[in-house]
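Hi there,

I know you've been waiting on this one. I reran it after we fixed the sequence typo, so this is the corrected version. Both the input and the resulting structure follow.
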Amino acid sequence: MELDSAAKGRQPQTPTWLWLLPRLAFVLFIAVVGALLWLSNRTEKEEQRAILINDVLSLEQDLRFQLTRNEEILGEIGPRVASSAASFEAHARTLLNNGAGLRQIFWVDPDGRIGRVFPGYLVAPSAQQRKGAIPSPETLRLAQSVGNPTYSPAYPAADGDWQFEAHVPVFREGRLAGITVGVYSIRHILDNAIPWWLAERYRISVVDTGGVHLSDRTKVEAAEEGSGYEIPLEPPGHGLSLRTVPYSAPAPLAGRILATSLVLLAIVVLWSLWALRRHVQQRQIAEEALRNEHAFRKAMEDSLQTGMRARDLSGRITYVNPAFCRMVGWSAEDLVGRSPPMPYWPDEFFDETRELHDRILAGKGPDEVFELKFKRRNGELFDVLIHEARLIDANGRHTGWMGSLIDVTERRRAEELARQQQERLQATARLVAMGEMASSLAHELNQPLAAIASYSTGCLNMIESGSADTAELKAALEKSATQARRAGRIIHRIYEFVRRSERKSERCDLAEIIDEVLSLVEPDARRAGVRVNVEVQALPAIQGDRVLIVQTLLNLARNAIEAMAETPPEERVLTVAAWSEQDAIRVDVADRGCGIPAESIPRLFEPFYTTKAEGMGIGLNICRSVIEAHRGRLWFEPRTGGGSIFHVQFPRPPS
């Protein structure tokens, strides 16, 4: 009932902005996810760069601290230490072994002469080195003049390394006592000063002003990433810089998983939106089709004259259509939701109605249409034909019963009126047939009456003559009585045939009925010169109305006799045959008459249609009605060689 209001009008279409909102939300979601990933990547790079700068500054401070400390240690070597080869070697060995990058130490006196050197071999400069002695004279003079530690420019060594010198002047009592020169290997500085974990992260190089790599601490198998970071290497200065370039490292697994998950989530959201949109569209189409179908079915149900009533398994009414409401006089609001007993159950038939109702709910009701009496709201009783069917839901479960009801009150009245009319027609037809047979019946009665009169006259004559013989009188009176009984039987047959009586069903012997019919038509047949041929086999008895069956066969026999009026006398034969088949009993009435025109055959059994000049056109129609009332058939076939055959078939009674 709730769908009725929904089906009355078309639901409004979904606004366009409702379709655009999920798309806009998805675009914003993608934008936010992209921005989040970009921001996360940027933040990660900034953090990595901050760590890089921090690591470089820390490394630069360590190098500066190491070089400054070496300056102090080199400044502790004075003339007294240099005067003893063993003491100088001990101090030099200590400096070389502390991992500070020193590879050779010189002691130069104030005059610029080399006094001591350790180790004793000289790491000569390469061919690209400027001409001159080691240590660098320019740096010696600069150190003497400024009185502070001074570093020389870097220069290549013969072994492919680059090196530079630290000149530390030593003063005693305010006078220059000498200069301690430490030769640094850039390769050794990087190898010794840079921890392994830092070398795992970065490629650390010392470059000059031209960008030439003097020495590297690197993993050759790792790839570089980005431009790195570069700061001046102070000391020793002279354009040397410490460049640090990070290695490209794989992104963290968690980050990759997060990014991949976000991408997959975006794809899933996109697919979900597409699938949801398609599902909503399909659902809208299905709902529209359902509304149209419901509106169609509602209009169809409202236009029906058949009442529809649905009940659940407990007998409670769940649905009624307008035709049912008009039929009983109660509205749908009065009936829906109501449980037995129902207001349209008549009081006088309450027990029978309740018993049938309970049988139906128990699944034991009639399988075919059945008839009941219902009561209208105004108290009027009416007849209904009901057919109950199971209500099955979409899951195949039995949820109740659907009944279709037809008000057959007017039909019953019409049927009763038609039955009464049919009986009147049948009585009229019998009277007409009796009138047509009057002359023959008069002749038939005249014979026994004449014989009675003759026997009576003979008896009177014998009595008056006085010569009456008792035996002869007795014989004459017996013959007179026989003729009287014969006349009585004729009159009784006529009375039984003509009188109007209620239709009844009784056991009927078809062989006896055929004999009775032939006795009734015998006068007509004799007068018309028609020979009667009877072929009757042993027949089982049937159940029916004897008078109506006699009337039917009599009408067919008389029609056959009349049809042979123009037939040559020697060919006028009426054949009545009867036999039993497997599931039926057949009676054929055949003649050799003029036959029936082809154009009249389709209308042969219509009421008031006749081919006779003075016929009424109701005989064959009544015959067919009688046979069909006995659940039989009546049909016509042309006879081979001329004439007609009317076939009558009755159902064979059960054994």
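Quick highlight: The domain at 505-655 is CATH 3.30.565.10 (Heat Shock Protein 90).

Best,
R. S.
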